[in-house]
Design a protein that fits this description.
single chain; about 40% helix; D-Maltodextrin-Binding Protein, domain 2; 11 strands; about 350 residues; alpha/beta
């Protein structure tokens, strides 16, 4: 009888032990999967103010269940400070202007992109597949682009000047976006920067908003000339028929706005899903509308947006009027001087 009891109890005990261990293993495995799911459901993006609209991000989060934690900056210099001071693993994706990329690459802030994982990569126009600062197309994916030009109020200046220097020499008021790159270009090199900047600021007016220099045209004393990117000129200005936009003879600054994978990105796969999402046609249209600039996405060629907002517009700009600027360090010096003047 005792042997019979043992033959019944022992298997039951073993079954209980095995069942308990199995249950604990399943529970632990579920906890690990849940933790992994929670960890991969959130990516951190460093970008410029207004580029990624809340509508766009909500649509991405709804489609993928990946949360986006967005950190925004007002100017290229402000964004660089966040990138430079960021602790390891703070950002997954970062947004950079083309003139910031060489410095970011030299400081190993970026890592090569696994381009084969971007199914929408082919939507980028061939015109932007080899941009000057990343000819191998390994570290960045350009989504927007622009070239600066001169917008003239023909009610004040009947014959628009062919050069920016002519506009300056006319003594008429010249407006400028709060762009250190434009200031660096117009001031020139090899000069006492502080003295030259102070002299130059006496003859121009800077827009307070880095992104919307056309706000100057709605001021009490609007300028006769305004330097803006060609894409913004497509969004209309007050009394648009009275304004003429042109790329000056001495050339306009060419730039691209790209996304890059941060060197310390924690969630590469999720970051690439967002980047691929941003290359979709509807997303590209959203970026154009939010940032008021031209797109690199060739699928927009078939839409009814202004021709200036399409990638093919680049082919209408003479190559001798395209200036690629790479010296971001000088721009940072100018921003420091501008901030010091405010204080």
């Amino acid at each position: 009888m005792r042997g019979l009891r043992l033959s019944v109890i022992l298997p039951l005990a073993i079954a209980v032990v095995v069942g308990t261990i199995w249950g604990l293993w399943i529970r632990r495995n579920q906890e690990l999967k849940s933790a992994a799911s929670d960890a991969t459901a959130e990516i951190h993006v460093l970008s410029y103010r207004g580029l990624l609209s809340s509508t766009l991000l909500k649509r991405f989060e709804s489609e993928t269940s990946i949360r986006v934690v967005l950190t925004e900056a007002e100017t290229p210099e402000a964004l660089w400070e966040k990138l430079e001071s960021a602790t390891p693993q703070t950002f997954d994706l970062v947004t950079l202007f083309s003139y910031q990329i060489p410095l970011a690459a030299s400081l190993t802030r970026l890592q090569p992109l696994p381009l084969s994982k971007l199914k929408n990569l082919q939507s980028i126009s061939p015109d932007f597949r080899e941009i000057p600062v990343d000819r191998s197309f390994e570290a960045v994916v350009p989504v927007l682009w622009g070239i600066s030009g001169l917008l003239t109020d023909t009610r004040k200046i009947a014959q628009p000047p062919e050069t920016i220097q002519s506009a300056l020499n006319s003594k008429a008021k010249l407006g400028l976006p709060n762009s250190t790159m434009e200031l660096a270009r117009l001031i020139g090199e090899g000069k006492d920067l502080k003295k030259s900047l102070n002299t130059f600021l006496e003859s121009i007016v800077l827009a307070e908003d880095y992104l919307s220099p056309t706000s100057l045209l709605r001021s009490a004393n609007p300028p006769s000339f305004l330097i803006i990117s060609h894409g913004e000129s497509a969004f209309g200005t007050p009394s648009e028929a009275h304004f003429k936009f042109q790329i000056p003879q001495e050339g306009g600054l060419f730039w691209t706005l790209s996304f890059a994978l941060h060197q310390n990105a924690r969630f590469e796969a999720e970051a690439l899903r967002l980047l691929d999402f941003l290359l979709e046609t509807d997303s590209s249209l959203d970026l154009v509308q939010s940032y008021r600039q031209a797109s690199t996405n060739r699928t927009l060629e078939a839409t009814d947006i202004d021709a200036r907002l399409k990638p093919s517009y680049l082919r209408q700009v003479p190559l001798n009027r395209v200036i690629v600027w790479k010296d971001f360090s000088r721009a940072r010096e100018i921003r420091a001087l501008l901030d010091a003047k405010k204080n």
